[in-house]
Amino acid sequence: MSDAGVVDAFSRLSRPVRDALSERGFSTPTEPQQRAIPPLVAGHDGLVIAPTGTGKTETAMLPVLSAIAEADHRFGISALYVTPLRALNRDMRERLDWWGEELDIEVDVRHGDTTQYRRTQQADDPPDVLVTTPETLQAMLTGEKLRRALSDVHHVVVDEVHELAGAKRGAQLTIGLERLRELAGDFQRIGLSATVGDPREVANFLTGGRECDIVEVDVTSQVEFTVREPRVRESDERLSNELLTSPEVASHVRAIREIVDDHDSTLVFVNTRQTAEALGSRFKELDANIGVHHGSLSKEARIEVEDQFKAGELDGLLCTSSMELGIDVGRIDHVVQYSSPREVARLLQRVGRAGHRRDEVSHGTIVTGHPDDTLEALAIARRAAEGDVEETPIHHGSLDTVANQIVGLLMDFGELKAYRAYQIVTRAYPFRHLDEETFKAVVEELSRNRVLWLDEESDTIEKSGGTWQYYYANLSMIPDEETYEVYDVASGRQVGTLDERFVVNFAEPGASFIQRGEMWRIAEVDEEEGRVEVSPIEDPSGEVPSWTGSEIPVPYDVAQEVGEIRDVVGPQFESGAGVESVARDLTAPYPTDAYTAERALDPVERTVEADAPVPTDDRVVVESQGRDIVVNAAFGHRANETLGRLLSALLGQRTGSSVGLDVGPYRISLEVPQGIRASDVLDVLEDTDPDHIRPLLELSLKKSDALKFTLSHVAAKFGALKRWKGRDGVGLNRVMAALEDTPVYDEAMREVFHTDLDVERARDVLARIQSGDLDLVVHGRRTAIGVGGRSSGQELLTPENADASVINTVKDRIEDDRVRLFCVHCQDWEHETKVSRVQDQPECPRCGSTMIAALSPWADDAVTAVRAEEKDDEQEKRTERVYRNASLVQGHGTKAVKALVARGVGPQTAARIINNHRENEADFYRDILEREREYARTKAFWD
């Protein structure tokens, strides 16, 4: 960079800003400042893509502050700084306050926690620059005084725009900005973003498709990654006893602690809050100087650990995705990612937080725990080094967002022509292809729900009695799920929050759990106040709080690279090469050591040794044993979810029985009824028309919990449903039927497809299978690759007694299972139903007997054996088991039914579970879970 170029970048700014730069000690601009300041000073819209710590905030704000300082008059708010997290507001305020004081420019913050007194002050005497959130902007657009203040906006900066681009709240913001444009006229739009795979698409999202200068700083030359699976040492055996966990997990804890000890300040990223709490509790046991930070902690608790880390009082900070978004916690010299980050963008953003000095390389270590995890992390690390980043999944045409913003326009205008509203909405990039007919259907639905009035003759929409109430209840597009505040009885301080499902299903006086890495015992639950009183305890057997939230999906391209690695190493093993030499070859293109590579390749080597086919990027291997069928397919979460749902629906249709489904990025696991074989899976994959995938899935989704859950939230955004509290599905089934031909249902279906499924990829897979371009192979036994997977590492941090989320999953699954009730007395009555609908004491409606067996829906052989007049030895055994089954149900009612429908549990095992005399329901399900785990461990050896 030449001296002339450096001078040129800052010389574009006004004299007061240049003087302030000199006083601040800014002599040399960073790369994004050097490249972006000139076009931004010229008034161009701009998107600045650069890593955290490269001065992005100043890149955007120095030209804005320069323009404000030079302005002839300041009537209202000159600039808005929109950020997705309230926590970022505090940082922005602190960083911008200095500039404001130097330039005599007033900077203020406004969000949901801003006091009414301060809001009134801002309305009466607007600041020059206002830092706010997307939701608070929605509220500001409706205030009479604030509208006058907003009419003077000349600049809008959107921070972390990549985060908003993939969310409905971002889609809402794009229309909000068009509403602001109606008020203030054209204004400059500046977006700040982490690395994205499609910069032009994100720029269009920001500007509505208008011209935009993109300044992208190459981050790949400034990051280095290491992927390692810690080797279990002798000391880890002792540590595992101390931490009440496995030696493998102990080795992870020890390895992370060693990294933290070797550096001054380390961020340790994990993928879920549950993992943060579980890992944090282990570090606390070791008195490690490591804090915990995630979104379910109270604001005070988060600020406390942020300040402690920034001040150097903590050596490390365990955190989740909220710390990706540039919260200022001082200088970071290393980042640990615990387990695969699942996405390239996520890894770049997290590791990019380390090393904030000019030209300093950011270092990150990915600590992995099992083969899939390691291979996935290797693929992501290599792709990150190449800058091969995923595209941003913008919510195009989300109809509940349209509904929400039509009401917003009514709040702005009082009344307006429906077509005028349509023109404003479709200026926003995610809604540019929305057709008039669909828009009209949304307006009509809102009118039916009395959220607004529609005068069809004049094509005018007007406020109704419910408009105001609806709008302020729906400022946010984030799903409305209640949380309970957790308070320490002794200090009165808020500890954090728990989600409603956890409280309802688990929280009761005496129960213990982990939060902030500490153990707590529940003293009292106040349902009306939404408050849980707790006290600290030292008991290490506490349960980990459960937060709702879907797993981060592994993209198709990452999963394909894992398949490519198998494709490369498989033939090497087949030719007789040893794992040491194959692993050594893998360390050349990938950033790992020989031991980690050997561990990752072990299942491939064992699969080859068993003379089984290796699944790759272009080979799908279907393996089966008993009722378990696994489709090994390296297509990522969403494509596999699509194929899995298709297989489950079509195989279930053939038998009239439900098919169990578990999906990961490399496997589709099916638990099938008797009579279904691997060849039936092949038939579906080879015979289903690829163009029929979507309509077939739409039919199968009608009964799914995923659609019901999504529909409840979408219906609320249309004003069609008060917040659904029942959670029993009964009310929603009726609501679904009533809404089926409305935009509410269409949007719920669109969202499920957008979030969970990838029809195009699945369609491509079927087309490639049917053209012969993709190999489809059947193997009659389970393979080392097929039995592996994410699930083998999923419970690494789960205490042996299982946490509440696991217990609730077991309970929900069992109650949702179907059972065949059969009267062994008269042998004339049988009835199939859900377990949850079985009476406390089942009774035959024909003969009145209570000798009712609880059998599998496909237990035809057992029923035939009981009814047979002449029985062979096998039928005698079956009959005896059925009578023992019925005797248990007669003596213990639904408790016996629940035990008997568990996987791998027969009458003898069910009797042992019942005879444990568990008074606590959770302990009863723990016993069932332990038996199911035992069955899962041993079933491969059964006939």
Automatic annotation (TrEMBL):
<dbReference type="InterPro" id="IPR017170">
    <property type="entry name" value="Lhr-like"/>
</dbReference>
<keyword id="KW-0347">Helicase</keyword>
<keyword id="KW-0413">Isomerase</keyword>
<keyword id="KW-0238">DNA-binding</keyword>
<dbReference type="GO" id="GO:0005524">
    <property type="term" value="F:ATP binding"/>
</dbReference>
<dbReference type="InterPro" id="IPR014001">
    <property type="entry name" value="Helicase_ATP-bd"/>
</dbReference>
<dbReference type="InterPro" id="IPR002464">
    <property type="entry name" value="DNA/RNA_helicase_DEAH_CS"/>
</dbReference>
<dbReference type="Pfam" id="PF08494">
    <property type="entry name" value="DEAD_assoc"/>
</dbReference>
<dbReference type="InterPro" id="IPR013701">
    <property type="entry name" value="Lhr-like_DEAD/DEAH_assoc"/>
</dbReference>
<dbReference type="GO" id="GO:0004386">
    <property type="term" value="F:helicase activity"/>
</dbReference>
<comment type="similarity">
    <text>Belongs to the Lhr helicase family. Lhr-Core subfamily.</text>
</comment>
<keyword id="KW-0067">ATP-binding</keyword>
<keyword id="KW-0227">DNA damage</keyword>
<keyword id="KW-0378">Hydrolase</keyword>
<dbReference type="GO" id="GO:0140097">
    <property type="term" value="F:catalytic activity, acting on DNA"/>
</dbReference>
<dbReference type="InterPro" id="IPR001650">
    <property type="entry name" value="Helicase_C-like"/>
</dbReference>
<dbReference type="Pfam" id="PF19306">
    <property type="entry name" value="WHD_Lhr"/>
</dbReference>
<dbReference type="Pfam" id="PF00270">
    <property type="entry name" value="DEAD"/>
</dbReference>
<dbReference type="InterPro" id="IPR045628">
    <property type="entry name" value="Lhr_WH_dom"/>
</dbReference>
<keyword id="KW-0547">Nucleotide-binding</keyword>
<dbReference type="GO" id="GO:0006281">
    <property type="term" value="P:DNA repair"/>
</dbReference>
<keyword id="KW-0234">DNA repair</keyword>
<dbReference type="InterPro" id="IPR027417">
    <property type="entry name" value="P-loop_NTPase"/>
</dbReference>
<dbReference type="InterPro" id="IPR011545">
    <property type="entry name" value="DEAD/DEAH_box_helicase_dom"/>
</dbReference>
<dbReference type="InterPro" id="IPR052511">
    <property type="entry name" value="ATP-dep_Helicase"/>
</dbReference>
<feature type="domain" description="Helicase ATP-binding">
    <location>
        <begin position="37"/>
        <end position="214"/>
    </location>
</feature>
<feature type="domain" description="Helicase C-terminal">
    <location>
        <begin position="255"/>
        <end position="400"/>
    </location>
</feature>
<dbReference type="GO" id="GO:0016887">
    <property type="term" value="F:ATP hydrolysis activity"/>
</dbReference>
<dbReference type="GO" id="GO:0003677">
    <property type="term" value="F:DNA binding"/>
</dbReference>
<protein>
    <submittedName>
        <fullName>DEAD/DEAH box helicase</fullName>
    </submittedName>
</protein>
<dbReference type="Pfam" id="PF00271">
    <property type="entry name" value="Helicase_C"/>
</dbReference>
